[in-house]
Amino acid sequence: MFAELYLGVWQAPVELNATQAWGPSLATDAAGNPHIAYYTSNGSAVLHAWREGGVWRFDLVDRTTGFYSDIEVDSQGRVHVVYSKLSPPPSQIRYALKDASGWHVESLSTNGSSTYATDIAIGPDDTPHITQDAYTNPTITRTIHHWKPAGSGWMSELVDYWCAESGIDVDDLGGLHVSCNDGGGHVLYYHKQGSSWIREVIDGGTPPFLNGIPAQYTSIAVGEDRLPHLAYAWRSCGVTVYCNHVRYSAKQTEGSWISTFVDPEGRLDGGPTIRIDDWGVPRMAYYYYQDAVTGGGLFSNDLRYAEPLAAVPGGVACIVC
Fold first, then answer.
1. pLDDT digits (tens, 9 = 90+) for 46-74
2. What would the pLDDT profile of 276-312 be if each residue is shown by its tens digit?
3. Residues 6 or more apart from 246 whose CB is under 8 A from it?
C-alpha cells in the first residue's frame, strides 16, 4: 500500500500487490525512489521491491525464512538488507549487499545468542551499522547489540539490557542513534556520546493498556538536522480508539517530542519502518492486517507505504505518486 500526508493528515494507502509482506522496511535512493525489503511466507523468501520510473519492480534477495528485515541504499546506489534467519536453527543475522553483479549474502556470528530482530543504517562513509535484538537462554535476557564491519569480519557492542525491537540510524557526522522498547510499554531513544549510550524515554507507559504493552516494534530515522524521527506500533486495543496502529514521534529543536497517529484505519501486524530522504521527507512502510472480526467480515493483508504529501520534492502536492 502507498499513502501520503497532506496538511498533517495521512492519505489513503494504495496497494502494491505484495501478499504476505511480513516485516517490511523502507529506504530511498539518491533519486528519491523508495526501496522496500520484506519476507513473504508465500515461497519463504526475502524480497526487494523498488519504484523506478513510476513502476514498482521486485527481485529475490534470499530464499530463506528472513523475518524482521531492514534495508538501506548507500551513496553508490548499492542496496543493503539485513534480516533474521530463524529456521531451521540456529538463528542468524544475515546481511545481503546488492551491487552491479547482483546479491551477495553472508551470515554474522551471534556470539551464542538467538536473534529476534535486526535493523541497519549506513554511515556517511557507506559503512553499514546493524542492531541485533537478542536473547540468551536459559535466562531469556533481552539485549540490544550494535554491529559494524571490522577488518574481514564484524564486531559487536552492547547498547543496553531489557530492550527489544530496535532501530538504528547514523547522522551525517557518523553519530549513532538507536530506538527500542523496554518491554513495559515505553519507547526509548539512545544516542552515543563517546563510549557511552545516553537514554531518553519518549512515549508510552501511561496506563491502562491492553496487557500493559502500548508500544512495540520501533524504527528510527535521523534527518540532516540530526533530530530523530520514530515510527512504532501502538497497541492499546480495547482502551482507546486506536488499536494496533502506526504511531510517529519526532524530536523538536528545543528538546521536546511530538507524537501522532499515521494510519487510523489500518490494523498493524508487526512493526513499521521509517526513513528520511535527501529532501527531509519522512517515509514509512508497514504490514496492514485485517481479520474477519476487525474488518466487519472482510479479511485482508497487504504492504502499505506512506509519505507526507505536503513535503514532496519540488513542492508538488499529489494524492498518489
1. 889 998 888 888 899 998 777 778 899 99
2. 877 788 888 777 766 545 545 455 566 777 777 654 4
3. 231, 232, 233, 234, 261, 262, 263, 266, 268, 272, 284, 286, 306
Written as one letter, the residue type at 65 is: T
**How much is the pLDDT for 48?**
92
Q: What is the DSSP string of 92-136?
A: EEEEEEEETTEEEEEEE--TTPEEEEEEEEE-TTS-EEEEEEEEE
Taking the C-alpha atoms of residue 86 and residue 100, their distance in angstroms, rounded to an integer, is 29
Amino acid at 321: C
* Cα distance between residue 97 and residue 111, in whole Å: 22
Could you identify the residue written with the cell 549506513? 122
- The CA distances from residue 257 to 75, 152, 205, 249, 252, in Å, are 30, 40, 15, 7, 6
Q: Grid coordinates 544475515 are at which residue?
A: 94
Find where cell 529506504 sits: 27
Higher pLDDT, 301 or 79: 79
Global confidence as pTM = 0.78
Cβ atoms of 91 and 72 closer than 8 Å? no
